[in-house]
Amino acid sequence: MYLLLALRLVHIVSGILWVGMMAFTVVFLRTPVGSAFGIGGAAALIAFVLGLVVLGPAIGRATALAATLGSVATEEERAARAAEIDRLRSRAAAAGRVVALLLIVAAGAMAVARYV
Question: How many CB atoms lie within 10 A of CB 54?
Fold first, then answer.
């Protein structure tokens, strides 16, 4: 998990440095290529932050609660934890769909940037 996070950060930082070396200016963003790269980069950054802030913690909490589900003493507490797990899983699923959509937008924008 930490390896993937480190690789994502290296990818993002290298992209930011690449844009910085291109003398990134407002003039570049006004071109069709610059707009496409900007939209794609913004979508990718939003997807990264959303995955880091919403998706990861929801999955982590659901996994931790599921691990303690066997040691619950009463049925009411088991039902409450199961409901919380279901809520966290649905939240993670919704966040995952949004992240996937943002990554499709990012990949599409960056793929067509060369041709616009």
Answer: 17
**Considering the entire predicted model, what is its pTM?**
0.78
CA distances from 35 to 21, 24, 28, 75, 100 (A): 17, 12, 8, 56, 21
**From CA 50, how far away is CA 31, in angstroms rounded?**
28
Question: What is the distance between the alpha carbons of residues 100 and 28, in angstroms, rounded to a whole number?
Answer: 28
Give per-residue pLDDT as tens, 35-83. Answer: 888 888 889 889 989 998 999 899 999 999 999 888 888 889 999 999 9
pLDDT of residue 24: 59
- Cα(38)–Cα(51) distance, integer angstroms: 20
Closest CA to 110 of 21, 3, 37: 37
Domain edges within the chain: 2-115
